Amino acid sequence: MFASFPTSTGWAERDTLRSMWKFGMDDPVGTRSRQTATVIFLIFAGVLIGANLPLAIDIFRFSSSDEALRRVPLIALVVTLAGLWYQAHRAAFNLEIDLVLKFTQRWDAPELKAIRSAAAHALLRDPRQADGAIDDVVDFFEDVGFLLKRGAISHHTAWQFFWVPVSTYHQATVPYRLENESEDAEVWAQFEHLYSAIEAQERALRKRHKITTALECSKERLMELLINESQLLGEVPRFRISKRKT
After folding, report:
1. Measured between alpha carbons, how far is residue 172 from residues 76, 104, 134, 203 in Å?
2. Helices 30-51 + 155-172 axis angle, to 10
3. What is the pLDDT of residues 6-65, one digit of tens each?
4. Selected residue with higher pLDDT from 130 and 235
5. pTM recorded for the entire structure
6. Tens-digit pLDDT profile for residues 55-73
């Protein structure tokens, strides 16, 4: 998780949510799709096994029934499919975690900390002025949003690791994005998709646990978050890496 992102800014309830909702254990949005796929597979496997159960019993009793022996490949196929499904599920999960950890390492890397610091300074100075560092931070979340849209990471994983920084910068850059929006509809589209997806996750979890605090932070808390971000390096960085979209 983003260890360097400030948490002593009045958003303590979000840390409480993370202690309540263990990773992968409470995912009202993403879990439904996985449960549906699992149920469909189990029904399919159950029908095959049920249809061949008498023959399977004959086999296990060392029956010499020719019909029973002919069904052995079918039963083996069911077992093989179950094993392949489990392996694919675990491989996808491992890939998802690997991607997320790489992004968290990138977020906390010195280079991106310098960019985050510069972006926070720019937002505090003038939230409408075009700035390459702000673009770079948004581009980072664009990459995360792309992976989410392609299904490489789940809604719950995106919420677990990215909700606080995404919601902070999404709220802080509203004037910036309105002032500097491009005619290209795809500019910042993945960032919006990422925020919408994990906002839905946040709302669902808050509703489930009857938490009624405001989803967005106050203007004062937002400023405090940006001040903390601007002080990541202790000073304003003298360089800036820009890949601004046009």
Report:
1. 57, 21, 10, 20
2. 170
3. 443 334 444 444 444 444 444 444 444 555 556 566 666 666 555 555 555 555 554 555
4. 130
5. 0.68
6. 555 555 545 555 555 656 6
Residue with tokens 């994983």: 157
DSSP for the chain, written as a single string: --TTS---SS-HHHHHHHHHS-TTT--TTHHHHHHHHHHHHHHHHHHHHHHTHHHHHHHHTT---HHHHHTHHHHHHHHHHHHHHHHHHHHHHHHHHHHHHHHHHHHTSHHHHHHHHHHHHHHHH-TTS--HHHHHHHHHHHHHHHHHHTTSS-HHHHHHHHHHHHHHHHHHTHHHHHHS--S-TTTTHHHHHHHHHHHHHHHHHHHHTT--S-SSPPHHHHHHHHHHHHTSSSS--S--------
Residue 114: partners with Cβ closer than 8 Å, 6 or more residues away: 232, 233, 237, 239
| 19/117: higher pLDDT | 117
C-alpha 244/C-alpha 126 separation (Å) is: 18
Q: Spell out the residues 6+ positions from residue 55 whose beta carbon is closer than 8 angstroms to its own.
A: 65, 67, 68, 71
pLDDT of residue 20: 42
Chain centre distance of CA 71: 44
Instruction: Return the amino acid letter for 177.
Output: R
Confidence of residue 106 (pLDDT cuts 50, 70, 90): very high
